[in-house]
Amino acid sequence: MGTDEEKDFLDKSAKTISVIFHPLLMPLYGMIIIFSGPTLLGYLPFNFKKLLFLIVLINNVLLPLSIIPFFIYKNIISSWTIENRQERIIPLLLTTLLYASTSFIIFRFPIPLFLKSFLLAAFFISLAVTVINFWWKISIHSVGAGALTALVLILSFKLDSSLVWYLISVIMISGLVLSSRLRLNAHNPSQVWSGYLIGCLGLGLFSWFF
Question: Which candidate, 194, 53, 162, places its Cα nearest to that of 118?
Fold first, then answer.
């Protein structure tokens, strides 16, 4: 494989990883981990899991994605990737509001406290990232990766369950996500690592003490 072909392959791989592990999808991956892991939460009724999954899918994935074309049309953002820090402000505010509404809806259900704390933590992390973005660009992909890592660790300790393979998987995924953002020159190392730290500490501390 030539140098140009290798570079093209690495760039395409980085873009693919960035799409597959887009920040909007991370809460869904988190719920998959919660519901599929060998913990008591994995034994919740299937219809109950499906309802919660659909609420997050519609409110925090499909709704934001459906509004992006309108933002582009109105020149609020210049592209789907939203690389410009100032262009991120309105989409981040919208995402935070949607997480707030999801938390409000979920708290009305008689569900385990851990699920409520997970979604509420997602709201506060989104709020923190929004505030930080007013002054500094941070890697939101890395925030999501850090949150998933913390989720697996908290599930392991708080629910006393062995999730070794889950932990290995999220660490490997985190490495791929962070590397892809650096490969695409979307962020510098400090933006990537600070994002990972915020996601990890934000979800970890909130879920542990809530």
Answer: 53
pTM of the entire predicted model: 0.92
Q: What does the domain layout of the chain look like in residue ranges?
A: 3-75+83-209
Write out the E strands in 65-194. Answer: none
Query: CA dihedral defined by 192, 194, 197, 201, rounded to 10 degrees?
Result: -140
Read off the amino acid at residue 191. Answer: Q
Check: CB of residue 38 under 8 Å from CB of residue 161: yes
For 87-112, write each residue's pLDDT tens digit.
899 999 999 999 999 999 988 888 88
Residue 143 near residue 125 (C-beta atoms within 8 A): yes
Positions of the chain with pLDDT lower than 70, given as ranges: 1-2
Q: Which of 45, 37, 48 is nearest to 158 (CA)?
A: 37
Confidence at residue 2, expressed as pLDDT on a 0 to 100 scale: 56
Inter-residue contact 34 to 111 (CB < 8 Å): no
Q: What is the pLDDT of residue 92?
A: 93
Those residues with Cβ within 8 angstroms of residue 187's Cβ, 6 or more apart along the chain or in another chain: 137, 138, 139, 142, 181, 195
